[in-house]
Amino acid sequence: MAKHHDWQPDVLGAPYQQLTLPLAADDEGDVVATLVRRADQVGALADLHRGPLRGTDVLYVHGWSDYFFQKPLAAYWREQGARFFALDLRKYGRSLRPGQTPGYVTDLGTYDDDIEAALDVMGHGLADPLGERSLILMGHSTGGLTLSLWTARHPERVAALVLNSPWLEFQARALARTVITPIERARASLDPLGVQPKVDLGYYTRSVSAALGGEWEYDTTWRPARGFDTHPGWMAAIFAGQARVAAGLAMPTPALTLLSARSTMSATWSPAMTRSDIVLDVEDTARAALHLGSTVTVARIDGALHDVVLSAPRPRQEAFAAITRWMAGYAPR
C-alpha cells in the first residue's frame, strides 16, 4: 500500500509542492530535510508526459550556500518524461531552522540520512523500492561531491549520475588540499565551528542575481550574497570527500559532468564572470572527474556559469542538449 505524505504548497508556487522529512536531532536541535516535487507528475497527470525518460525518477541536490529554485531544470526533466524531485539538505534553504549553523556537517556521510529519507518517499527506499522505475541522481557543486560519494557506496541503486560543476577538487589544486588538510583537521578538532575568513567577494551573486543585473530571483536568506560562513569542521569534511575522489571511486555507474568551458579567477570584477565559472577551476574539475569511475563523460559548455543551469539562455539550452544526447546512450532501459 502506498504511503500517504502531507505535501504542502511550495515557496516556488504552483505546481511545486514540498514535504518536510524529519531526521534525527543533533546538538543544535531538531533536524529536517525537505523534498520538493512538481504536482503535475502525480497520478493521472503523470501520464501526460511520454518522453524518453518515462519510468525514471530524478533526484537533484543543490550546492553550498544554496537551495533548489532552478525551475527550468525541473521543467527540462519533466519534458523528458521523468519525475523530478529536489532535496534541500539539512540546514539549507527550506530545511534551515533558527539556531542552526547553515550548511554545517563534519562528515558528508551525514547526508546519507537525508538522501535515504527522500528516496523512501520517492519509492526508491531500501524497504520498498519501485523496481519498475529507474533512478538518476543530479548534483551541483558540493551536492555533486556528496552524490558521487553516495553513488560509489550504492552503485546498484543508481542508473546514471549527472553532475553540474561538481566540487571534486579544491580550487587551489590537489597539492594545496594535501598541504592544508592537516591544518584543517587540527583546527576542526580544536574549534570545529570557528569562523574562517570569507573568500567569496560576491561576484558570483552579481552574475546571477536579478537585483544586480543577472536573471534570477531567489531568497537571499537561503542564498546570501557572499555565502554562508565556513568552518574548520565542515572544510575538513569537504577535503576528506575530495581525497576519496582523488584516490578513485571506481563507480560502475555512468557519470556525466557538465562544466563551463573556462574559469575566471580574479579579485576584481570582470564582464567575463557572466560567462564563465568563477567558483571552481574547471580544468582541475575535469581531471578529477576521471577518477569517478569507468564510464565518465565531461561536457564543456561555452559561456556557462558555475551553475550551468543558471547560465544565459543559450549555454543553458546547450547544457540541456548535452544531457539529452548523453541520455540517448546511457539512459535507463
Task: Note down, in words, how this protein is organized.
Keywords: Hydrolase. It comes from Orlajensenia flava. InterPro entries: AB_hydrolase_fold, AB_hydrolase_sf, Hydrolase_4. Residues 58-176 form the Serine aminopeptidase S33 domain. The protein is an alpha/beta fold. It has one domain (8-330): Alpha/Beta hydrolase fold, catalytic domain (Rossmann fold). It has eight helices and nine strands. A nine-stranded mixed sheet has the order 1-2-3-5-4-6-7-8-9, with helices on both faces. Strand 1 (8-9) and strand 2 (16-26) form a beta hairpin. The longest helix is centred in the middle third of the chain and has 18 residues, at 173-190.
CATH homology superfamily name: Alpha/Beta hydrolase fold, catalytic domain
Q: How many helical stretches?
A: 8
CATH fold assignment: Rossmann fold
Please state the overall shape, judged from the principal axes of the Cα atoms. globular
User: What about the largest sheet?
Assistant: 9 strands, mixed
Q: Label the structural class.
A: alpha/beta
Task: Pick out the low-confidence regions.
Answer: none
Arithmetic mean of pLDDT? 93
Protein name: Alpha/beta hydrolase
Organism: Orlajensenia flava
GO molecular function: hydrolase activity
Pfam families: Hydrolase_4 (PF12146)
List keywords for this structure.
single chain, 333 residues, alpha/beta, Rossmann fold, 29% helix
